[in-house]
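Lab notebook, bench 4. Still working through the backlog of constructs that have no structural model yet. Next entry is a single chain of 400 residues. Request: give me the structure tokens for it.
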Amino acid sequence: MKLLDQVASLYNQELFEEIVFLYEFTNPKSAEITDLSVKNQILLQVYVADAYFESQQYKQSAKNFTQTEVRYRYYRTLMRIRHYAEALDVLREVPFQSAPTKIKYALLRLVTVHFGDDRGFDIQEMINNPQSAAFLELLFLQIRQGMTLSQKQQTDLTAKVNFLNNSNMKTWLTLHFEIMNRNHTEGIRQLLNLSPQGYRISLEMAEVYNLMGMKAECHDAIKCAHSSEQDRSERMGLYARVLRQTVTGDVRLNLRIDALASSLKRSDSDCADVWIAYGEFAAAKKDYSKAIHFACKAENMSPDIFTRSLSRQLKAGIFVTMNKFVDAEKILRSAIVEDPKNFQFYEMLVDAIINQKKKHSVTRALNVVDICMERLPDDPQAKTLNAMLKLKTKRRGTVS
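Model written out:
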């Protein structure tokens, strides 16, 4: 068998160390290599470089790969072991303007999903060079999570969306603008216009209903999603949370929770959503130490800001229930730094501060509301919280 055929066969079997062994015992000037066409010599080099990489011999891999490709492969390894900050540092060594599309996409996905801010990247450059609808969606997720755009950037991004041929994708991306501007009702209307009403659309509707504080509708949307695809576990943490908030009566709630727990046993134990759900179950049964343990486990393995925020809401809520308001405040202040447009954190933080009943508690709570109004000026829930707290302060006749 010729060398290239042997290497290809071993590569397909994922016997990477065997490839390294075979290659290192082959003279690079032998006819087996020099007689190959230029295309096949490059193919052999890629096989060997990847084999070195998979064998964790990165320096040898670097000799065969371009530096950009080595960094990309190293980034993928770091992502698998959840070393997100290191992965970001590896990719940032590649100049963004000259980087291949897959590097740009990986960078944008990393800062959007795992960090929730632009990390100093040139957003205009990202807007100018999106390569696909998926690339655009990551930009919109950045916006929804708090990134601000200039009027020119908004105009440029809208123009990019209008060039898409797929009407469903246009609607999907446009609704992110509505949600960014807190036009949740319009966002729901646009979601309802999408067809077919599949798993992903139902989950998106659940998230928007949750932002609006409409727990029953959120519950129904997630239930619809998971009844159609029972082997998937995305947003199961949110499902368990709204289940605990909407189902009344201990017996009925425990029956629903036990049924959901049984279905989760078939789910991936490495999925953070599953552990948030288990934490919600434990909290519903007043086993708070176990609930906090599950919430911490979920937070440590959370792949995105949304899931981390759910785990922190669970922890903070348990501490409030246990009258540990100072602990709850610490968690919530830290959570707001990463997820500054999550209204539920501000609402919970105001509650935790007021219940401490210390000197200047109301003043501190009012400061939190002011920050909330600054970041969510058009949010109806934020306006209601602001009005209620100020009314309460007025009735007391003093700020303490």
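Notes after review: The CA atoms of residues 341 and 376 lie 7 Å apart. The chain is about 75% helix and 0% strand. Flag for follow-up if needed.
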